[in-house]
Each structure stands twice: as C-alpha cells, then as structure tokens.
Amino acid sequence: MAAREPSRYLTRALPRASVPSIRPQGFLSRRNVSDEAPARRLSDHLTELESASSLSTVVPNSAAASFDPLARAAARKNQLPRGRYQFRSPKYNRGPLHPHQPPPPSHPSSRLFVPGPFSAPRAEQTFDSTVSPDIMTLCYVHTPPGFKPPPKSARLREWDDSSPYHKNRVLRGPRGGDVLRLLRKPIKFNNIPEIERITIHSYVKNAATERNSSWLHVAGIAVQAISNVRVETFKSKSNVAPWGIASGRDSVAVKAELFGENMYHFLGKLVDVVLPRIKDWEGVKGSSGDSSGNITFGLVPENVALFPELEINYDMYPPKMIPGCHITLHTTAKTDKDARLLLSAMGIPFYGKIVN
Amino acid sequence: MNINFANLRNLPDSIAAPSTSVHLDNPLYYLYRHCRTTSSNMSMHTSLRRTAVTITNSTTTILPTRLPTQSSGTTFICSQCRHATLLRRPKRPYTFTQLITLSDGSTFTHRTTSPAPIYRSTRDTRNSLLWNPSSSKLMNVEDDEAGRLAAFRARFGRSYDASAPVAEDEAAKDPAAAKQAEADAKAQAKMDQDEEDNLLDLISAFGQTEAPPPPEKKVPKYSGKK
Asked: What is the predicted pLDDT for the residue at A1?
C-alpha cells in the first residue's frame, strides 16, 4: 500500500520532468537544488526499484522439514551457556529513546532488584493484629445518620475585590503564618496511621575537625550494623565557622533509611532490647515532632553501643568513635497526636508535656 | 552539502581550531575534529550531526572542549556520561536470623547483622519499670517486716512520710462515724462515675477538632562570622 503511493505521483510527475526548464540558465550565478533536478532523470529511480516483493517468495519444503527446534535441543549434549538463554539487563540506562531498555526495578532480572521480604517481623505482626484495630477503635467518632459536619471556611483566603488588581490574583495564605498544615481526615479502616519509614541520621562532629576519614567510616559501619542498611554520607550544606565545616567540602554525616522489613526489625529491636537498657531513660520527650506526624529522638553514643550488633563485637569499634544518632520515625499520621498514639502503642514511651 | 573538506584537513591547527569560545558553537569544528581523528577518507554525504556523534564515541569524554590527544593528569575516571546512567546494583549487608530471648522467657526471631544465633537479654520491656508502671515487683519497695522503719517514721518523720493508718480503728468503734463513712463512700462512688463519663467524653472527642496550628516558633537565625 505504502509502496504504491509514490508511483501514483510519479506517473503524474514524469511528463513534467521531461519538460525543459523555462528559466534561462547560465545567466545567474546563484544555483538552486531544483535546478539540478532535471540532470538526473526520474525514470532512473524507477529502474532502481525491485520488481519482486519479498512477501511473494515461496519457502522451499526442505527448509520447513529441517526446522525442528525440539529435536535440536534434545540432541544437545551439554547445557547452553547462561548467556544464550538468560536475559541480562543492560548496565546503563541510556534514556527512553534507546532501543535497549532496562527492565523495571521490580523485575528479578533488573540490576536494581532487591529481593524480599523474607520474614514477617514481630513488630509488623503486632501492628497488624493488635495496634491497628485499637487505633481505629480509639479514633472512632460516631455521627448519627444524616449528620452533616458544619462547613469549614476555606484554608486559603480570597481577596476582597476592593482593587481591580485583585482579579486573577493567587489566593492568600491562612491568617497568622503562611504554612498550610496537613489536613487530618477522620481515621477509617483505610487510613489508619502506620509507620512509613525510619531514618537514622548521625552527624559526626570530629569528621570535619580532624582531617581523618576514620570517624566517618566507623560511624557508617556502626549505623549499618544496627540498621541492616547501607548508609549514605552527606557533605555539609552550610558554612559554620565554630564547627569548622565548609559547605561542600567535608563529609560530615551518615544516614540510613529503613523501609518495610528492615524498619520493623529495627523498631522491634529498639523497643524490646535497647531502650529498656538505657540508664535513667525517661522516654521520648513529649514535645518532639514536626507537627505533621514525624517524631524524632536522639541516642547518645553510650546508648548506641547497647545495640546487640555493636555489643557482639564491641572491640571492633574504637570506643571513642561510636556515634550518637537521631532516629526519626516517619508515620503516615497527619498530626503528632495520632503519631504519638501509634508509637506509644508500639512501645515507645513519652514523657513530659505532650505537645500536639 | 557538497563541500570539499579535503583542503580543510591540511590546515594548521591555529586556523582550523580557533579559541574555545568560538568552536563550541561551530558545527564545522566537530567535522574538522572528525577529519583529524579518523584516518580513512570521510564520505562527504554524511550529515554534520552524525559526525558530532561519532566524535563523542571515539574520544570517551563528553566534554567537547577537550581534544582527544589531551589527557588529564588526575586518576579520577568519569565513567558516567550524559547519555548513559550506570544502574548500580544496590548493596545490602549480609543478615543472619537471630533468636531473641527476653527476660521472661518469651522469644522471637529477627534479621540482624550480628552473627550470634541467640541473644539473651537481661533487661528489656518485661522487667523495666518504664514499661510496667504498675508492677509492684519492679517498684523500689523497701521490705519492712519488723516495722522498725515505720516506727522510726512515726517518731521522727515529717508530715509527708509519716503515714496515718490509725483512722480505721476509730471508725469501727463509733456508729456515727461509720454512717459518715458510708455517706462518704457513696459520694466517692458518684464522683468516680462522673469521672468515668468525663473520660468517655474525652475518648469520643478524640480527633474531633483539628489540631490548632502551633504558634510560630521564633528560631534565632544563626549568623556565622562575616
């Protein structure tokens, strides 16, 4: 079909091509591409086209008879090398237009694939079986049938049209500060707050002041040991002269992010084994939290050394270099009050004035 | 583009490769570099774009400012380039399964980097006071079997530690006092009931109101030495 299209135009164009150009040639020094066209006859192009179609060729019977892949595989004495039958993901991602695309990270052949989960952590089972029904019951708000909540005013304020310039202007932020807090929806079966991820962050003070990378190595390995996750290192973003750090120069911090299985294993270990062993620990301060459901607390180096992973080969770590860390528990709760309810149900005690 | 580049190849460097700021914008420069790097005679019908691509492949650096003959003195090898991102295999530390035995004998397993198969804890949530606030066993209670400490307090103690358990005997003797005590107990029960109602209200009111936005924190801006 597509091959037939140009021929229709060609038949029309052929007589026109044979007509000599009416423009006088040789008088102008300027040359155009269209001037060159009659030099090559269009009929020459037609002779280059193949007359036979590849679709009409007939496969000989001998070729069809010899094609027997099953017998060929059975006759093979030793197994094919792995590269002959196993798909191997490309090493590089060369962009969306490249013909060789890596498989998605969820696919087992992908280079980014992380297998798992392999276990059902105890803390997760506790959450599923006990904590989440409790939270849903505690947060249940009964409304009689036909109840309509009173309408709330808009969070962003409109401009009073006192000026003609108010037209199409973006809305104003809330009164008393331009931060829009997260909206808390009533907690139902499908939005019970749960722990989303845990971040273990450790700023190593001596990494910048002493020109020695060993502080960061020890901190990284210690955080990796307690979290089961490879850490990332971070350079300082700002210049603070008293601390001796300059932006972009010094690697000063390590961070591990825990999700899913690792996260619940870490939480269970933290609550059941580590926190009770801390001397004179009152709990997490009640005023901690970022008012959107993430609670942070810190552990000093002596407390980090109480983790069973560091304890088992405590001699491997230089005692002075064991880092302290900040542990942030990110929850899907929208307010700190809900997050504290969840975390205290999971076994983290809070003390002092509870600020929500 | 039927342009003859044959004589361009013979030009000296100073003419054909002008300063950096000029040749970056000039597509002819890439063509020139291609002519110099490839030994075979170039076909004149290849497009300019195509030659620019071949030059990046042949020199292994993405920066077009660097000539292929130059080599940097640093040992750092930039294997990343703009059109190919290395897909790094995620690194995961090896983990073992460990059985944790709590102090009351209950056990659970978890995955850990510690190679010890069993961890026995002596101090955990089962025997620390913070997690068992009502446990009398864990309270720091003095045992005073002979009553000597109580006797000492009765004699020398101040008001806060001198307890007065003597009132019960008086109530048993006097019927009027017993009646009074009964009335007190009733009032107490009523108050308890009221308090329970208040607690129920508290529970049902949980989450009704949106949390008020916290007051603006005045964070002192850190100003470094200027």
From this structure: 43
